[in-house]
Amino acid sequence: MNNELLRKIPSLDALLREEAVLRLIEEHGREVVASEGRATLDEFREAVAAVRDAAAPPPDPVHEAIVSRLAARLAARSAPSLAPAVNATGIIMHSGLGRAVLSEAARAALAAVAAGYSTLALDAENGKRVSRDRHVEGLLRELTGAEAATVANNNAAATVLILNTLARGKEVVVSRGQLVEIGGSFRMPDVMTTSGAVLREVGTTNKTHLRDYEAAVGGSTGAILRVHHSNYRIVGFVEEPPIEDLVALGRARGVPVVDDLGSGALVDLSPYGLAPEPMVRASVGAGADVVCFSGDKLIGGPQCGIIVGKADWIQRIKKNPLARAFRCGKLSLAALEATLRLFLAPEKLAARHPIYRMLALTPDEIGRRAKKLAAALRKSLPAGVVLAVEDGESQVGSGAVPTETMPTKVLAIRSAALSAEDIARRLRFLSPPIFARIHKDAVLFDFRTIQPGEDMIVERSLCDLLK
Protein backbone atom coordinates (compact mmCIF):
# COMPACT_ATOMS: atom_id res chain seq x y z
CA MET A 1 0.00 0.00 0.00
CA ASN A 2 2.70 2.50 1.01
CA ASN A 3 4.87 1.87 -2.05
CA GLU A 4 1.89 2.28 -4.35
CA LEU A 5 0.97 5.59 -2.76
CA LEU A 6 4.57 6.82 -2.80
CA ARG A 7 4.78 6.16 -6.55
CA LYS A 8 1.82 8.47 -7.09
CA ILE A 9 3.67 11.41 -5.57
CA PRO A 10 5.33 13.37 -8.42
CA SER A 11 8.91 14.56 -8.44
CA LEU A 12 9.60 18.24 -7.81
CA ASP A 13 10.46 18.78 -11.49
CA ALA A 14 7.20 17.19 -12.59
CA LEU A 15 5.24 19.23 -10.06
CA LEU A 16 6.79 22.48 -11.26
CA ARG A 17 5.70 21.72 -14.84
CA GLU A 18 2.03 21.38 -13.94
CA GLU A 19 -0.18 24.10 -15.39
CA ALA A 20 -1.66 25.05 -12.03
CA VAL A 21 1.81 25.29 -10.49
CA LEU A 22 3.07 27.40 -13.39
CA ARG A 23 0.39 29.94 -12.46
CA LEU A 24 1.68 29.89 -8.89
CA ILE A 25 5.21 30.46 -10.18
CA GLU A 26 4.01 33.48 -12.15
CA GLU A 27 2.51 34.93 -8.97
CA HIS A 28 5.14 34.02 -6.36
CA GLY A 29 8.36 33.34 -8.29
CA ARG A 30 10.04 30.04 -9.18
CA GLU A 31 12.47 29.91 -6.25
CA VAL A 32 9.75 30.34 -3.60
CA VAL A 33 7.40 27.84 -5.28
CA ALA A 34 10.21 25.31 -5.61
CA SER A 35 11.10 25.66 -1.93
CA GLU A 36 7.49 25.30 -0.76
CA GLY A 37 6.87 22.55 -3.34
CA ARG A 38 9.76 20.52 -1.97
CA ALA A 39 8.41 20.92 1.57
CA THR A 40 4.91 19.95 0.42
CA LEU A 41 6.13 16.78 -1.28
CA ASP A 42 8.13 15.87 1.82
CA GLU A 43 5.00 16.28 3.93
CA PHE A 44 3.06 13.88 1.72
CA ARG A 45 5.87 11.33 1.67
CA GLU A 46 6.14 11.44 5.48
CA ALA A 47 2.38 11.06 5.81
CA VAL A 48 2.33 8.04 3.51
CA ALA A 49 5.30 6.47 5.29
CA ALA A 50 3.50 6.91 8.60
CA VAL A 51 0.52 4.81 7.44
CA ARG A 52 0.92 1.39 9.02
CA ASP A 53 -2.66 0.25 9.36
CA ALA A 54 -4.08 -0.83 5.99
CA ALA A 55 -7.57 -0.20 7.35
CA ALA A 56 -6.75 3.42 8.08
CA PRO A 57 -7.63 5.85 5.30
CA PRO A 58 -4.33 6.83 3.66
CA PRO A 59 -3.65 10.43 2.66
CA ASP A 60 -4.72 11.33 -0.83
CA PRO A 61 -1.47 12.05 -2.69
CA VAL A 62 -2.96 12.80 -6.08
CA HIS A 63 -1.69 15.83 -7.91
CA GLU A 64 -4.75 17.94 -7.15
CA ALA A 65 -4.32 17.50 -3.40
CA ILE A 66 -0.61 18.29 -3.57
CA VAL A 67 -1.20 21.42 -5.66
CA SER A 68 -3.95 22.52 -3.29
CA ARG A 69 -1.65 22.10 -0.30
CA LEU A 70 1.15 23.93 -2.10
CA ALA A 71 -1.17 26.84 -2.91
CA ALA A 72 -2.23 27.01 0.73
CA ARG A 73 1.38 27.10 1.91
CA LEU A 74 2.21 29.89 -0.53
CA ALA A 75 -0.84 31.89 0.50
CA ALA A 76 0.13 31.58 4.17
CA ARG A 77 3.72 32.55 3.37
CA SER A 78 2.74 35.65 1.42
CA ALA A 79 0.05 36.81 3.87
CA PRO A 80 1.16 39.93 5.78
CA SER A 81 1.97 39.46 9.45
CA LEU A 82 0.85 43.00 10.24
CA ALA A 83 -2.79 43.00 9.18
CA PRO A 84 -6.11 44.65 10.08
CA ALA A 85 -7.94 43.38 13.16
CA VAL A 86 -11.29 43.96 14.86
CA ASN A 87 -10.99 45.48 18.33
CA ALA A 88 -13.96 44.34 20.41
CA THR A 89 -12.19 44.84 23.76
CA GLY A 90 -13.60 48.29 24.53
CA ILE A 91 -10.06 49.67 25.00
CA ILE A 92 -10.01 52.65 22.65
CA MET A 93 -6.24 53.11 22.40
CA HIS A 94 -5.16 49.49 22.62
CA SER A 95 -1.35 49.43 22.46
CA GLY A 96 -1.25 45.83 21.25
CA LEU A 97 -3.71 46.60 18.45
CA GLY A 98 -1.96 49.71 17.17
CA ARG A 99 -3.28 52.39 19.53
CA ALA A 100 -5.03 55.22 17.67
CA VAL A 101 -7.38 54.61 14.77
CA LEU A 102 -6.39 57.21 12.20
CA SER A 103 -8.97 59.61 10.84
CA GLU A 104 -10.17 59.54 7.26
CA ALA A 105 -8.16 62.71 6.65
CA ALA A 106 -4.97 61.10 7.97
CA ARG A 107 -5.52 57.94 5.92
CA ALA A 108 -6.03 60.03 2.77
CA ALA A 109 -2.85 62.00 3.48
CA LEU A 110 -0.92 58.74 3.96
CA ALA A 111 -2.18 57.32 0.69
CA ALA A 112 -1.40 60.49 -1.24
CA VAL A 113 2.17 60.77 0.03
CA ALA A 114 2.86 57.03 -0.26
CA ALA A 115 1.81 56.98 -3.92
CA GLY A 116 4.82 58.88 -5.20
CA TYR A 117 7.28 61.67 -4.49
CA SER A 118 6.39 64.41 -2.01
CA THR A 119 7.39 67.87 -0.79
CA LEU A 120 9.06 66.40 2.30
CA ALA A 121 12.15 68.58 2.60
CA LEU A 122 12.38 70.89 -0.42
CA ASP A 123 11.32 74.52 -0.64
CA ALA A 124 9.08 75.25 -3.62
CA GLU A 125 10.32 78.85 -3.71
CA ASN A 126 14.01 78.14 -4.33
CA GLY A 127 14.22 74.35 -4.61
CA LYS A 128 16.60 74.16 -1.65
CA ARG A 129 16.50 71.71 1.22
CA VAL A 130 14.48 72.75 4.29
CA SER A 131 13.45 71.19 7.59
CA ARG A 132 10.77 68.52 7.37
CA ASP A 133 9.33 69.89 10.64
CA ARG A 134 7.79 72.75 8.68
CA HIS A 135 4.80 70.57 7.78
CA VAL A 136 3.67 70.39 11.41
CA GLU A 137 5.55 73.09 13.31
CA GLY A 138 3.15 75.90 12.45
CA LEU A 139 0.15 73.81 13.48
CA LEU A 140 1.82 72.83 16.76
CA ARG A 141 2.65 76.45 17.55
CA GLU A 142 -0.96 77.44 16.90
CA LEU A 143 -2.47 74.58 18.91
CA THR A 144 -0.14 74.78 21.91
CA GLY A 145 1.00 78.41 22.06
CA ALA A 146 4.65 77.31 21.93
CA GLU A 147 7.37 79.30 20.20
CA ALA A 148 8.72 76.31 18.25
CA ALA A 149 8.27 72.57 17.78
CA THR A 150 9.87 69.43 16.43
CA VAL A 151 8.95 65.75 16.22
CA ALA A 152 10.69 62.46 17.09
CA ASN A 153 9.59 58.92 16.29
CA ASN A 154 8.02 58.35 19.75
CA ASN A 155 7.80 60.06 23.11
CA ALA A 156 10.55 57.95 24.71
CA ALA A 157 12.86 59.09 21.90
CA ALA A 158 11.70 62.66 22.46
CA THR A 159 12.61 62.40 26.15
CA VAL A 160 16.06 60.98 25.37
CA LEU A 161 16.65 63.70 22.78
CA ILE A 162 15.60 66.48 25.15
CA LEU A 163 17.67 65.30 28.10
CA ASN A 164 20.70 64.58 25.93
CA THR A 165 20.53 68.13 24.60
CA LEU A 166 19.79 69.95 27.85
CA ALA A 167 21.54 67.86 30.48
CA ARG A 168 24.08 65.37 29.09
CA GLY A 169 26.61 64.76 31.87
CA LYS A 170 24.55 66.81 34.32
CA GLU A 171 21.92 66.03 36.91
CA VAL A 172 18.21 65.98 36.13
CA VAL A 173 16.05 66.56 39.18
CA VAL A 174 12.85 64.48 39.27
CA SER A 175 10.42 63.35 41.95
CA ARG A 176 10.60 59.71 43.09
CA GLY A 177 6.86 59.51 42.57
CA GLN A 178 7.36 60.19 38.85
CA LEU A 179 9.92 57.51 38.00
CA VAL A 180 7.40 55.64 35.90
CA GLU A 181 7.72 52.45 33.90
CA ILE A 182 6.07 52.69 30.50
CA GLY A 183 5.00 49.92 28.14
CA GLY A 184 7.51 47.23 27.24
CA SER A 185 9.28 47.54 30.65
CA PHE A 186 11.02 50.79 29.68
CA ARG A 187 11.70 52.72 32.87
CA MET A 188 12.29 56.44 33.22
CA PRO A 189 15.63 55.96 35.07
CA ASP A 190 16.86 53.78 32.18
CA VAL A 191 15.70 56.33 29.61
CA MET A 192 17.59 59.03 31.50
CA THR A 193 20.75 56.93 31.69
CA THR A 194 20.57 56.35 27.93
CA SER A 195 20.35 60.10 27.40
CA GLY A 196 23.61 60.66 29.25
CA ALA A 197 21.91 62.59 32.05
CA VAL A 198 22.38 61.78 35.73
CA LEU A 199 19.26 61.01 37.72
CA ARG A 200 18.79 63.07 40.90
CA GLU A 201 15.78 61.75 42.81
CA VAL A 202 13.98 64.00 45.28
CA GLY A 203 11.09 63.57 47.69
CA THR A 204 9.24 60.33 48.32
CA THR A 205 6.87 58.12 46.37
CA ASN A 206 3.76 59.91 47.59
CA LYS A 207 5.03 63.36 48.63
CA THR A 208 7.52 65.69 47.03
CA HIS A 209 7.66 69.32 48.14
CA LEU A 210 9.06 72.35 46.37
CA ARG A 211 11.74 72.54 49.05
CA ASP A 212 12.98 69.12 47.92
CA TYR A 213 13.64 70.53 44.46
CA GLU A 214 15.19 73.69 45.90
CA ALA A 215 17.65 71.65 47.96
CA ALA A 216 18.66 69.52 44.96
CA VAL A 217 19.18 72.23 42.33
CA GLY A 218 22.75 73.43 42.14
CA GLY A 219 25.74 73.94 39.90
CA SER A 220 25.59 70.38 38.54
CA THR A 221 21.90 70.56 37.61
CA GLY A 222 21.11 70.37 33.91
CA ALA A 223 17.31 70.37 34.10
CA ILE A 224 14.26 69.97 36.28
CA LEU A 225 11.95 67.27 34.93
CA ARG A 226 8.29 66.70 35.65
CA VAL A 227 6.87 63.38 34.41
CA HIS A 228 3.13 62.82 34.14
CA HIS A 229 2.06 59.66 35.99
CA SER A 230 0.43 58.50 32.76
CA ASN A 231 -0.61 54.89 33.41
CA TYR A 232 -1.19 55.02 37.17
CA ARG A 233 -2.38 57.31 39.95
CA ILE A 234 -1.21 57.85 43.52
CA VAL A 235 -4.18 58.88 45.66
CA GLY A 236 -4.66 59.80 49.29
CA PHE A 237 -1.77 61.34 51.22
CA VAL A 238 -0.01 62.86 48.21
CA GLU A 239 1.56 66.14 47.17
CA GLU A 240 3.58 67.47 44.25
CA PRO A 241 4.38 71.07 43.35
CA PRO A 242 2.57 72.39 40.28
CA ILE A 243 4.46 73.10 37.09
CA GLU A 244 4.20 76.85 37.76
CA ASP A 245 6.29 76.49 40.94
CA LEU A 246 8.91 74.39 39.15
CA VAL A 247 9.12 76.99 36.38
CA ALA A 248 9.62 79.78 38.92
CA LEU A 249 12.38 77.77 40.59
CA GLY A 250 14.02 77.04 37.24
CA ARG A 251 14.03 80.69 36.28
CA ALA A 252 15.44 81.75 39.63
CA ARG A 253 18.28 79.22 39.35
CA GLY A 254 18.84 79.45 35.59
CA VAL A 255 17.82 75.82 35.01
CA PRO A 256 15.46 74.71 32.18
CA VAL A 257 12.24 72.93 33.12
CA VAL A 258 11.03 69.96 31.05
CA ASP A 259 7.45 68.71 31.26
CA ASP A 260 6.91 65.16 29.95
CA LEU A 261 3.13 64.97 29.62
CA GLY A 262 2.89 61.42 28.29
CA SER A 263 -0.49 61.35 26.58
CA GLY A 264 -0.71 65.10 26.16
CA ALA A 265 -4.15 66.60 25.58
CA LEU A 266 -4.93 69.33 23.06
CA VAL A 267 -8.59 69.54 24.13
CA ASP A 268 -10.46 69.28 27.42
CA LEU A 269 -11.78 65.76 28.05
CA SER A 270 -14.51 66.79 30.49
CA PRO A 271 -17.19 67.10 27.73
CA TYR A 272 -16.63 63.36 27.19
CA GLY A 273 -17.29 62.64 30.86
CA LEU A 274 -13.63 62.01 31.67
CA ALA A 275 -11.26 63.47 34.23
CA PRO A 276 -8.94 66.11 32.78
CA GLU A 277 -5.55 65.12 31.42
CA PRO A 278 -2.70 67.67 31.45
CA MET A 279 -3.23 70.17 28.67
CA VAL A 280 -0.23 70.96 26.52
CA ARG A 281 -1.26 74.60 26.17
CA ALA A 282 -1.46 74.94 29.97
CA SER A 283 2.07 73.63 30.43
CA VAL A 284 3.41 75.93 27.73
CA GLY A 285 1.48 78.82 29.22
CA ALA A 286 2.93 78.08 32.63
CA GLY A 287 6.37 78.71 31.16
CA ALA A 288 7.85 75.23 30.80
CA ASP A 289 10.93 75.48 28.61
CA VAL A 290 10.31 72.18 26.80
CA VAL A 291 7.17 70.00 26.73
CA CYS A 292 6.89 66.57 25.14
CA PHE A 293 3.98 64.19 24.56
CA SER A 294 2.85 61.30 22.36
CA GLY A 295 1.27 61.79 18.97
CA ASP A 296 -0.56 58.45 18.95
CA LYS A 297 -2.45 58.70 22.23
CA LEU A 298 -4.92 61.52 22.89
CA ILE A 299 -3.77 63.26 19.72
CA GLY A 300 -4.91 60.14 17.85
CA GLY A 301 -2.29 60.33 15.12
CA PRO A 302 0.68 58.19 14.04
CA GLN A 303 3.32 56.99 16.46
CA CYS A 304 5.59 59.93 17.24
CA GLY A 305 6.84 62.10 20.05
CA ILE A 306 6.03 65.80 19.84
CA ILE A 307 8.36 68.40 21.37
CA VAL A 308 7.27 72.01 21.83
CA GLY A 309 8.68 74.91 23.81
CA LYS A 310 11.00 77.89 23.82
CA ALA A 311 12.60 78.58 20.44
CA ASP A 312 16.22 78.56 21.65
CA TRP A 313 15.89 75.16 23.30
CA ILE A 314 14.01 73.66 20.36
CA GLN A 315 16.72 74.88 17.98
CA ARG A 316 19.38 73.19 20.12
CA ILE A 317 17.35 69.99 20.12
CA LYS A 318 17.01 70.09 16.33
CA LYS A 319 20.78 70.43 15.95
CA ASN A 320 21.52 67.43 18.17
CA PRO A 321 22.92 64.56 16.02
CA LEU A 322 20.40 62.25 17.70
CA ALA A 323 17.59 64.27 16.11
CA ARG A 324 18.39 62.65 12.77
CA ALA A 325 18.39 59.17 14.31
CA PHE A 326 15.02 59.80 15.92
CA ARG A 327 13.35 61.78 13.14
CA CYS A 328 10.02 60.84 11.55
CA GLY A 329 9.54 59.78 7.96
CA LYS A 330 7.20 61.27 5.37
CA LEU A 331 4.30 58.92 6.21
CA SER A 332 4.26 59.83 9.89
CA LEU A 333 4.50 63.55 9.12
CA ALA A 334 1.70 63.36 6.55
CA ALA A 335 -0.63 61.59 8.97
CA LEU A 336 0.33 63.90 11.84
CA GLU A 337 -0.28 67.06 9.82
CA ALA A 338 -3.74 65.87 8.78
CA THR A 339 -4.54 64.84 12.37
CA LEU A 340 -3.44 68.14 13.88
CA ARG A 341 -5.61 70.07 11.45
CA LEU A 342 -8.67 68.37 12.95
CA PHE A 343 -7.96 70.07 16.29
CA LEU A 344 -8.34 73.50 14.68
CA ALA A 345 -12.10 72.83 14.90
CA PRO A 346 -12.41 71.01 18.26
CA GLU A 347 -16.21 71.18 18.20
CA LYS A 348 -16.18 68.84 15.18
CA LEU A 349 -13.78 66.24 16.58
CA ALA A 350 -16.51 63.72 17.43
CA ALA A 351 -17.64 63.77 13.81
CA ARG A 352 -14.19 63.69 12.19
CA HIS A 353 -11.80 61.93 14.57
CA PRO A 354 -12.28 58.20 15.39
CA ILE A 355 -10.84 58.51 18.91
CA TYR A 356 -13.21 61.31 19.87
CA ARG A 357 -16.13 59.64 18.10
CA MET A 358 -15.59 56.58 20.31
CA LEU A 359 -15.22 58.75 23.42
CA ALA A 360 -18.50 60.50 22.62
CA LEU A 361 -20.61 57.35 22.11
CA THR A 362 -23.34 56.84 24.70
CA PRO A 363 -24.29 53.47 26.21
CA ASP A 364 -27.66 53.70 24.44
CA GLU A 365 -26.02 54.13 21.04
CA ILE A 366 -23.67 51.25 21.72
CA GLY A 367 -26.50 49.10 23.10
CA ARG A 368 -28.59 49.50 19.95
CA ARG A 369 -25.79 48.01 17.84
CA ALA A 370 -25.27 45.17 20.30
CA LYS A 371 -29.00 44.33 20.37
CA LYS A 372 -29.22 44.39 16.60
CA LEU A 373 -26.38 41.90 16.27
CA ALA A 374 -27.79 39.70 19.03
CA ALA A 375 -31.15 39.53 17.23
CA ALA A 376 -29.47 38.56 13.96
CA LEU A 377 -27.34 35.88 15.62
CA ARG A 378 -30.27 34.27 17.45
CA LYS A 379 -31.81 33.38 14.09
CA SER A 380 -28.87 31.22 13.06
CA LEU A 381 -27.06 30.00 16.18
CA PRO A 382 -27.96 26.80 18.06
CA ALA A 383 -29.83 26.80 21.35
CA GLY A 384 -26.66 26.03 23.27
CA VAL A 385 -25.34 29.53 22.54
CA VAL A 386 -26.65 32.13 24.98
CA LEU A 387 -26.58 35.80 23.95
CA ALA A 388 -27.15 38.75 26.27
CA VAL A 389 -26.63 42.50 26.09
CA GLU A 390 -25.15 43.56 29.42
CA ASP A 391 -23.71 46.61 31.14
CA GLY A 392 -19.95 46.98 30.83
CA GLU A 393 -17.05 49.39 31.03
CA SER A 394 -14.80 50.77 28.30
CA GLN A 395 -11.31 52.18 28.80
CA VAL A 396 -9.37 54.96 27.10
CA GLY A 397 -6.17 52.89 27.18
CA SER A 398 -2.44 53.55 26.58
CA GLY A 399 -2.04 55.18 29.97
CA ALA A 400 -4.53 58.00 29.36
CA VAL A 401 -7.04 58.60 32.20
CA PRO A 402 -5.93 55.29 33.78
CA THR A 403 -8.25 55.25 36.79
CA GLU A 404 -11.47 55.95 34.88
CA THR A 405 -13.80 53.86 32.76
CA MET A 406 -16.77 54.73 30.58
CA PRO A 407 -20.14 52.99 30.89
CA THR A 408 -20.94 50.87 27.85
CA LYS A 409 -23.04 47.95 26.64
CA VAL A 410 -21.47 44.64 25.68
CA LEU A 411 -22.74 41.61 23.82
CA ALA A 412 -21.95 38.62 26.06
CA ILE A 413 -21.74 35.19 24.44
CA ARG A 414 -21.71 31.89 26.33
CA SER A 415 -21.65 28.48 24.70
CA ALA A 416 -22.41 25.04 26.13
CA ALA A 417 -20.06 23.48 23.59
CA LEU A 418 -17.05 25.80 23.88
CA SER A 419 -15.43 27.60 26.78
CA ALA A 420 -14.96 31.35 26.62
CA GLU A 421 -11.21 30.83 26.25
CA ASP A 422 -11.77 28.51 23.27
CA ILE A 423 -14.09 30.98 21.56
CA ALA A 424 -11.74 33.92 22.13
CA ARG A 425 -8.76 31.95 20.84
CA ARG A 426 -10.58 30.84 17.69
CA LEU A 427 -11.70 34.41 17.06
CA ARG A 428 -8.07 35.52 17.10
CA PHE A 429 -7.22 33.09 14.28
CA LEU A 430 -9.92 34.35 11.91
CA SER A 431 -9.29 36.67 8.99
CA PRO A 432 -9.51 39.41 10.10
CA PRO A 433 -8.76 38.37 13.68
CA ILE A 434 -11.23 39.52 16.33
CA PHE A 435 -9.98 40.42 19.80
CA ALA A 436 -12.57 40.36 22.56
CA ARG A 437 -12.59 40.24 26.38
CA ILE A 438 -13.47 37.36 28.70
CA HIS A 439 -15.45 37.87 31.90
CA LYS A 440 -17.19 35.22 33.99
CA ASP A 441 -16.82 32.59 31.26
CA ALA A 442 -18.43 34.86 28.68
CA VAL A 443 -16.85 36.46 25.64
CA LEU A 444 -17.65 40.18 25.62
CA PHE A 445 -17.93 42.36 22.52
CA ASP A 446 -17.84 46.11 23.19
CA PHE A 447 -19.20 48.04 20.22
CA ARG A 448 -17.52 51.23 21.36
CA THR A 449 -14.34 50.02 19.65
CA ILE A 450 -15.86 47.88 16.90
CA GLN A 451 -15.60 50.28 13.99
CA PRO A 452 -18.54 51.27 11.77
CA GLY A 453 -18.82 48.70 9.03
CA GLU A 454 -17.33 45.88 11.12
CA ASP A 455 -20.63 44.62 12.58
CA MET A 456 -21.17 42.30 9.62
CA ILE A 457 -17.66 40.91 10.00
CA VAL A 458 -18.36 40.05 13.63
CA GLU A 459 -21.76 38.56 12.78
CA ARG A 460 -20.41 36.39 9.96
CA SER A 461 -17.45 35.24 12.02
CA LEU A 462 -19.58 34.26 15.02
CA CYS A 463 -22.05 32.40 12.82
CA ASP A 464 -19.26 30.39 11.19
CA LEU A 465 -17.57 29.73 14.53
CA LEU A 466 -20.54 28.79 16.70
CA LYS A 467 -22.87 26.92 14.36
Task: Output the keywords.
alpha/beta, Aspartate Aminotransferase, domain 1, seven-stranded mixed β-sheet, 20 helices, 43% helix, globular
Descriptive account of the structure:
The protein has 467 residues and is α/β, with parallel strands linked by helices. The protein has three domains: 2-78, no CATH class; 86-94 and 359-466, Aspartate Aminotransferase, domain 1; 104-346, Type I PLP-dependent aspartate aminotransferase-like (Major domain) (Aspartate Aminotransferase, domain 2, 3-Layer(aba) Sandwich), CATH 3.40.640. It is built from 20 helices and 15 strands. It has helices at 2-8, 12-16, 19-28, 30-50, 63-78, 104-114, 134-144, 155-167, 188-195, 210-216, 243-253, 280-285, 311-319, 321-325, 330-342, 349-352, 354-360, 363-378, 420-428, 455-466; strands spanning 86-87, 148-152, 171-175, 181-182, 186-187, 198-202, 221-227, 257-262, 290-294, 305-309, 385-394, 406-415, 434-435, 437-439, 442-446. It has a seven-stranded mixed β-sheet with strand order 2-10-9-8-7-3-6, sandwiched between helices. Strands 11-12-15-14 form a four-stranded antiparallel β-sheet. The longest helix is centred in the first third of the chain and has 21 residues, at 30-50. The chain starts with a helix and ends with a helix. The mean pLDDT is 91.
Residue stretches low in confidence (pLDDT < 50, at least 5 long) are: none
The domain tally reads 3
The CATH architecture assignment of the largest domain turns out to be 3-Layer(aba) Sandwich
Overall CATH class of the largest domain: Alpha Beta
Strand order of the largest sheet: 2-10-9-8-7-3-6
Distance between the termini: 38 Å
Radius of gyration: 28 Å
| Percent strand | 15-25%
